[in-house]
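Task: fold both queries, return tokens.
Query 1:
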Amino acid sequence: MKYNHVFILALVNCCTISSLYSQTSIVGSGSSYNDIFPSSTPVTYDVPGGGLASITLSNGSTTATRGLWDLTAQGGANATILASLTESAAQVALNGSALQFQITNDNNSLLGLLGVGASIHYAWQAVAYFDTPGDVLNYTPNTHYSISFDVDGNNGLLSSVLGLNPSFTFELIDGLGNTLTSSNNTTQINIAGLLGSGVTTGTVNLDYLLGGTAPSGPIGVRFIGDAQVGATALSLGTDFATISNLNISATPVPEPGGSLLIGSVGVAALLRRRRLS
């Protein structure tokens, strides 16, 4: 009977340790931040000017806030073709279930005006801080953060062929915009590189481990895209990449000696109970 008491107490102690270090969803399904891509008006760069039968290139940008997100669209071109102004510009959109990096138009006539070696520069940025009043997500020391999201770049603009030379990155950031280092010692994550050579669609999984000091400010994420689009990109479509199913979970990590201390308390309690018996 004494051994039954010992076994039960050990089991309770084991379950207590397990609950202390269980994984918690903080962004995505099962969390307070499960609807982070609300449908809203796209943010589109307005290219100035518009030459007659000649192309006007611009690398300006525009930024606007949509929900949790600060969205930036940069770069584009326009021209008056057959007495009508035709424009192609960077655009960032939230469609209710995903974040989209796009261009507004891949008009063949517009791209055809580009000379040999010339290209239109497009860039996109989306930054979100999980800082809703009453539900702010702050970094916690000694915590393992797991991040996953889906990427869809099937329409061609994320491809490295045809001279597009795209880049597409992810960063986990603190309240000051500083980038945290992932478990593989990388700060700016090359999304296209993680998916694999020539692969533009898949799920990205990342891990970050914090030590005894937590970064300041709320948890934030930053996606950045960039591409040079020339006449060789005719009819490749208007989508650069779509990001969906962003999930972040947090798991406490015991401090050195922490697990040993909890286990020692359990053993001490067992020995005391046996002596009293």
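Query 1 returned. Query 2:
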Amino acid sequence: MSDKEDLIYTCKLSSQLSKEEKEGFLQVFNRVFNTNYDLEWFNWKYLDNIYGDSYIVLAYDKNKVIGIRAFWRNDIGNYLCYQPCDTAVLKEYRGRGIFTKTSLTALENTKGAFIYNFPNENSLPGNLKLGWKIDRFAYLEPVFNKVRLKDETHFIDDDYLMWRFIKSPIKKYHYCQKGGEFYLLFNRGKNIYYVLGRFNGKFKDYFIKASFPILFKYTTNKTIIYKIFKNKATIVFYNNGIEVEERIPIPEYKADYF
């Protein structure tokens, strides 16, 4: 194994990656997360992206890819945005600053953009250490008032809905209809669903209709569920030089893990 100083880092646009580089990315990802994703998934997420190219950082020990980090193009409104995701380092190389180095490399290449993320408790300290700021905490609460649900959810644009959710090669999504509105749902097991947002009902046949779903949505208020289970989502951001006059709202449905 090479010393820390001997590791090599590359950062490329997703469309510039060779087949060998994509396969190296997938090998690390699948080994770390115990998955079996293939080029179809990679191409959907990074090449068919409706917003354009993402940035992919590869860490090498000689000719072997040992760490990966992606800054996934995922715009909000008219703002150029990236969301860090698909970060993995082979177990034998951890603790050598690879997460920090890959993050700094990606940030250097995405100047002029707004960066946002939904880190877990393990990666949150690393983000804050690099200068990220907490946008908000999000807590789950049951949906009791179906009438207010429309005002408490975002509308998902048709193009984004088609690319991100309908064409996903790895996940299937559900929907329900309430008060003339169609809601995209993420199944958490059995009959429990998270409400991701509203969508144009003409696309409903691409999704599975949920029968008598138990619905949950995100709120910024601490809920009884949080007080019992202590689970929450943390949304963070990093202004990498973009000029904004107001806060950029970050919808939960933009999260990579849905």
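Both queries returned. Flag for query 2: The longest helix spans residues 19-33.
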